[in-house]
Amino acid sequence: MRRPFIGLLFVLCGTMAGSAWAQTGKLAGRITDERGDPVVGATVLIVDTGLGTAADLNGDYAVIRIPPGTYSVRFSSVGYQTQIVEGVLITSNNTTTLDVTLREEVIQGEEVVVTAERPLVDVSLTSSIQTLTREDIDVLPVQQLDEIVNLQAGVVDGHFRGGRLGEVQYQVDGVSVNNPFNNASTLTLDRSVLQEVQVISGTFDAEYGQALSGVVNAVLRSGDEDRYEFSAEVFMGDYVSPGNDSTVIVDRFEGPMTVALFPHIDDIDPATRQNYQASLSGPLPLAPRTTFLLSGQRFVDLGHLMGERRFRPTDRNDFEQRVFNPTGDGAIVPMDFDKQWSWLGKLTNRSIPNVQLSYQAVGNYIERQNYNHAFRFNPDGQKTAKQFSIVHGLDWTHTLSDRLFYELSLRQNYFDYKDMKYEDLGTIPEDAGKQFPLPEDSPYRAPGPPRGDANYEEGAIVQGVDLGRFVQRTNALVFKGTVTSQATKTHLLKAGVELQRARLSFGTPGRVDQVVVDGIQQLGVVRDTLGAEVNHYEPVSGAAFIQDRIEWRDLRVRVGLRLEYFDANATIPSDLQNPANSIDGAPPSLPKPTSVKLALAPRLGISFPILDRASVFFSYGHFYQMPGLGQIFSNADYSVLEDLQAGAVDYGVMGNPDLKPEFTAQYEFGFKSELTPFLGLDLSLFYKDIRDLLGVEFVQTYTAAEYARLTNVDFGGVRGFTLALDQRGPGPLSTSIDYTLQVATGNSSDPRETANRAAAGEDPRPRQVPFNWDQRHTLNGTLIWYQPDNFAVTAIVRYASGQPYTPTISTGFGAELEANSGRKPDYVTVDLRAEKFFRVGAVNWTAFVRVFNLFDQHFANGFVYADTGSPFFTLNPAQQRNPNPARLNPPRRVEIGISLRGVVPR
User: Fold this and answer.
1) Residue 513 pairs with which residues in a beta bridge?
2) DSSP character at residue 642
3) Do β-strands 791-800 and 893-905 pair in parallel, antiparallel, or remain unpaired?
C-alpha cells in the first residue's frame, strides 16, 4: 500500500474507463392532455443522454440515474404535439418534478418548445441543503471549494452549525475523500472542475456517514460524446492596501509611534497571485463511445506577509556582547506563500450495453509556507511544507432496467505531507547511540538552532533554522457499492455498503534537538525517532445502509438506517493503573486488542405541503464519527510511562486507540415557501445534542501517580435558526440574504483543554461555556445584476458578530476571567466580481475583475489582546511595538483576468 498507484493501475491497464454517474438525480411528473386526462404511454426522453421512459396508466412517469446538470426534456405521443422543455435542472439525490400538458396535434410533426422555470425554493426538501450548479459557481467571487462552502448559511470558517472542525464528510462524486488522520479533505478543488456542489448543513441521509455536522458533495465535470468543449482562465492580482496599513500606538516612555500592520506591501506586483487553468473534453478519437476530460491548473500566491532578508541562517552573532553581523541582501521575500499544481483526468466508456465503466484521477502538489513572525529578519530559516495528494479509481455502473441499477466504486486516497526545512539528516553512523551529534554532512549543522536576543528587534530570530520536522502519510483503499431501485411509483430505495482500509504513518522522522553526548551539550539527533515515520497504524472502517425516498403526491419522506463499523486494529494496556507493566507487585498489564465499535444510526426527514408552493419539514437523525485518528493514535505508546511513579517527567496527554465514536443527535424543523413568483423564503430551526466528544481523563496508577489520557468525556449543544430570502427577477437584478443565529456551548473547545487547564493550576472540572467559534450572528447577502451576453456584477456582503475570547484583568497567575466570557468586535466584509461578456467566432470570452475585502477590513474574528479585546492595541506597549501581521485577516485583494469557453461539434 506504500505505492500509490500499483494496485489500481493493473486493473486500469485491462479496461477503458471514465467518470461514473455516482451522484444522480431523478425527474418525475405527470403527463396529461388539455382535458386533464392522462396520456398513457407518452414517451419521455432526456435529450443527449439516452435516458427515458414511458408514462403509465395514470400518466405518471419517473426517470432515474440522471447526472446533475441542466437538460432539455422531450415529451411525445401519437396524436399530440411534441413538447420540448428546456432548462430543466437536475440535482444530485433529489427529485425534480415536471408536469406537462400535451395538446392535440394539428400539423403533423409540430413541436412546442418551452423553458422550465427554476423554483426559487425547493419545497420538497426535508432538511437544509444548498445546491450550487456550475452556472451559480461561475458568477461568485470565489476560487476554491472551501470558499464556496463558507458562503453557505450555517457555516462559519469550516464549522457547520456550531460543530468542531473535522466533523464534515467531503465527497467527490459520492465517495469520501476525507483523510482519517484529521477528518479533513485530502484534495484542494478549483472551481473550474466543479459541475455541482451540494452543502448539507442539516440532517442528512443514511447514505452519508463518518460525519457529525454536515456533508459537502462535489460532483466533477465530465466529457460529452457529441462535442468537444474547451476552456481556459488566466488571472493575476495583488494585495492592495495603500494608506491603511499602519496604526499609531502610545508608549509612556517613547511617546507616539507608527507601527506597520502589513509591512512591505506598498508596491503593487500583479505577479503576486497568478492562476493558469485549461481544460479539454469530448469524445476520445479511435475509441468507440468513449469520452475524456483533462484539466490542469497552476496557482501561485506569494501572500501579503513579507520578511526582510537582513540575516542568513548561517550568520554568526556574538550574543554575549550583543554584536550582530547580518550578511543578508536586504531583499523583501514572501513568507506565507502557496504554490500549487492541480490536475484532473477522466475517461468514460459506454461500449458495453447498459454499462458505464469509468476511471478518474484528481490530484494536487502543493508547496506552502506558513508565516512565522519570529523569522521576519531571517526568512530563509523557515521550514516549508510539501503535500502530494491523489484520489483515483474505477467506477462501474450497470443499468438492469429503467427502474433498477447498481454502482461499484474502488478508489485510492493517497496523501503524503512533509513539513521541515531539510529532508536529509546526513549520513547516520551504524553504531550511533540513542542520542548522537549531527553528522558532518547534515544540512542542519551549519545554520544550527534558531537564536535571537530579546533586546534586538523584540527577540527576532537572527540565525539558525526551524528544527521542526513532521511527516504524515495516508494510503487508503475505499470500496463503495450501491443498488438503487424505483421499487414502486412512490418508493425509491437505495442500499449500499462501504469499506475503507487505511495505512496511517505520522510523526517525526528524526528529531533534531539539543542532546548530551560524552558530557557535552550539542545539536544532535534522538535515535528513537529515526525512520520514515514513527507511528504506523492500519485501521479498518465500514458501513451498511438502506434508504427509502417516499414520494406520494406532494408528500416527501426520507427514512433510512445506517450501521457504522470501526476497528482501530491496535492495542492498549489491559490495566490502566499499571500502564507500562513496570510497577513491582502490581497485577500484570499486557497489551490487549482494541474492541470493534458498532453504531446504529436512524435517519428521518419529512416534507409536507400546507399551501400552494409552501411546505413544512422536519428531520431527525443520529450521527457517529470516529475522532481524527492522528489524535487518538498520537502518543499512544504507554511504555513511555515506565518511570511515571517518579513523577518527574511530563508525558503529555496519552493517546487512546480504544475510543468510541463521537455522537450527535440533530433535530431540524422548518418552513419553505414561494411568497411571490419572485420571492422565496426558507426558515429552519435546529438543535444538536453532542455527546462523547474527545476529551481528557486523569488516571491514577497503583503508586498514586497520575497521567492524562484521551477519552469520550466532552459534550456540547447547539441551537439556533436560519432565515433565508431569495429574490429572482422580474428584471436583471437578483438578490439573496440569509441570517443565522446560533448558540454553540460545551465544556471545552479543544480535546486537550482540560489537561491544559490542570497543568496551569486552573479548575479542570467540566463547565458549560461558549465554544471558541460560537459566532452568534452571521449574515450573508448576495446581489447579482445580470444582462445576458453583456455583463454581470456580483457583490457579496458578510456580517459576523464577534467570537468569544477569554479576557484578563492583569498579567500573571489567576489574571484570567471566566473562559470565553469576552466577545471580539463585529466585522463586515464585501467582495465584488464584475464581468464583461463578448464573443469572437465560436468562442465565448469573459473579462473579469474581482475584489476581495473591498473596504480593506483588517480584522475578522482573529487574534485579540486579552487585556483590551482589540487586535490593534494593548495595555502593554512592548507587545504592541511588535505586532504580528498574521493575526489579522488579509487586506484588500484585486484580481484581473480573462476566461474563454468554446464548443466544437463532433
Assistant:
1) 524
2) G
3) unpaired
Contact 567, 596 (CB under 8 A): yes
Give residue 786's identity as a one-letter amino acid code.
Y
Round to whole Å and give the CA distance between 681 and 618: 16
Q: Are residues 166 and 238 in the same domain?
A: no
Q: 635: which 3 cell numbers?
A: 502518543
Determine phi and psi for 643, rounding to 5 degrees. Answer: -105, 20
Is there a domain that residue 815 lies in?
yes
Q: Residues with Cβ < 8 Å from 217, sequence gap 6 or more?
A: 23, 92, 171, 172, 174, 197, 198, 200
890: burial class by Cβ within 10 Å (0-12, 13-18, 19+)?
buried
Give ∠ CA 147-741-170 in degrees, rounded to 5: 35
Q: How far is CA 646 from CA 583, 705, 761, 783, in A?
A: 11, 8, 20, 66
On whether the CB atoms of residues 488 and 467 are closer than 8 A, the answer is no
- Dihedral of the CA atoms 218, 223, 228, 230 (nearest 10)? 30
Q: Let me know how long the chain is.
A: 906
Cell numbers found for residue 705: 501517580
Q: Which of 93, 115, 137 is the last residue of a domain?
A: 115
Whether residues 191 and 231 fall in one domain: no
SS3 label, residue 458? helix
> How would DSSP label each residue in 740-757?
EEEEEEES-SSTTHHHHH
311 shares a domain with 163: no
Instruction: Please state the φ and ψ torsions of residue 886, each to the nearest 5 degrees.
Output: -70, -10
Which stretches of 818-869 are DSSP H helices? none
Amino acid, res. 546: I
Provide Rg for the chain, Cα atoms: 30
* Residue 49 resides in a domain: yes
* 134: CATH: 2.170.130.10
Grid cell, residue 857, equals 477590513
> Which stretches of 240-337 are assigned E, i.e. beta strand?
246-251, 255-260, 273-283, 290-301, 306-308, 332-334
| Number of domains comprising the chain | 3
The range of the structural domain enclosing residue 502 comes to 227-905
The reply to whether 60 and 81 lie within a common domain is yes
Instruction: Let me know: does 869 contact 807? Beta carbons within 8 Å.
Output: yes
What's the confidence (pLDDT) of residue 8? Answer: 38
Task: Look at residue 853 in the predicted model and tell me its pLDDT.
Answer: 94
User: 534 in helix, strand or coil?
Assistant: coil
Instruction: Say if residue 337 is in the same domain as residue 312.
Output: yes
- Please report where in the chains the cell 492592495 appears, as a residue: 240
Same domain (yes/no): 525, 665: yes
User: Which residue positions in the chain have pLDDT lower than 50?
Assistant: 1-21, 244, 252-253, 532
Model pLDDT, residue 5: 38
793 with 892, same domain: the answer is yes
CA distances from 261 to 156, 336, 890, 897 (A): 25, 15, 11, 29
Residue type, 465: V
Backbone angles phi, psi at 146, to 5 degrees: -65, -30
Distances, alpha carbon 761 to alpha carbons 578, 756, 775, 813, in Å: 26, 9, 29, 9
CATH of the domain at 842: 2.40.170.20
pLDDT computed for residue 812 by the predictor: 55
Do both 136 and 56 map to the same domain? no
Task: Tell me which of 195, 220, 245 is where a domain ends.
Answer: 220
